[in-house]
Amino acid sequence: MTAIEFNNLVQNVVLSLRPVAMNLTRDADDAKDLVQETMLKALTNRDKFKSGTNLKAWLYTIMRNTFINNYNKITKRSSNIDSSEYLQYLNTDESYITQNKGTATFVMNDINKAIANLSEEHRTPFMMYYIGYKYLEIAEKLDIPIGTVKNRIHIARKELKHALKVYNRDI
């Protein structure tokens, strides 16, 4: 099966994954993230899919396992995280992400610059969400309404999407 054929099959199934993701996560944003992560894993591991087997079941299995792994990571994380530990990373210019060679280095540099160019009020909730905080936790830590947290993260995503539009690839 060629990559294009596989991508077409996956595109046909992606709509049926969304309700299942919503059922697992009970949050629209988390469901979208789960579907996206599932699709990424499926496309990167397409060589592991056996032609003639049930693609939908294979994707559901990837989604379920991804959800379980993410859930386990979150529940193992201590609920009493010191926010000052997080804030020290925000105020430094050093990158704590392992850099790959070649193109990945350029991409990561562009992403880091785009994040650094966000205003403080948008960058802080976005980065907290990125490292695993839930909306409610962010609202409590920053002492702002949950709607404001959602809005700031939305704006940060929109600004990052615009800043990184050169990397946008439509399949």
TrEMBL record:
List, for all copies, the residue spans of the domain called RNA polymerase sigma-70 region: 17-73
Gene3D superfamilies noted in UniProt: 1.10.1740.10, Winged helix-like DNA-binding domain superfamily/Winged helix DNA-binding domain
Taxonomically, which superkingdom? Answer: Bacteria
Boundaries of each RNA polymerase sigma factor 70 region 4 type domain copy?
A: 110-160
Transmembrane annotation, as ranges: none
Keyword terms: Sigma factor, Transcription, Transcription regulation
A molecular function GO annotation:
sigma factor activity
Task: Tell me one GO biological process term.
Answer: DNA-templated transcription initiation
Q: Which family is this protein grouped under?
A: Belongs to the sigma-70 factor family. ECF subfamily.
What is this protein identified as? Answer: RNA polymerase sigma factor
Native source species? Pontibacter diazotrophicus
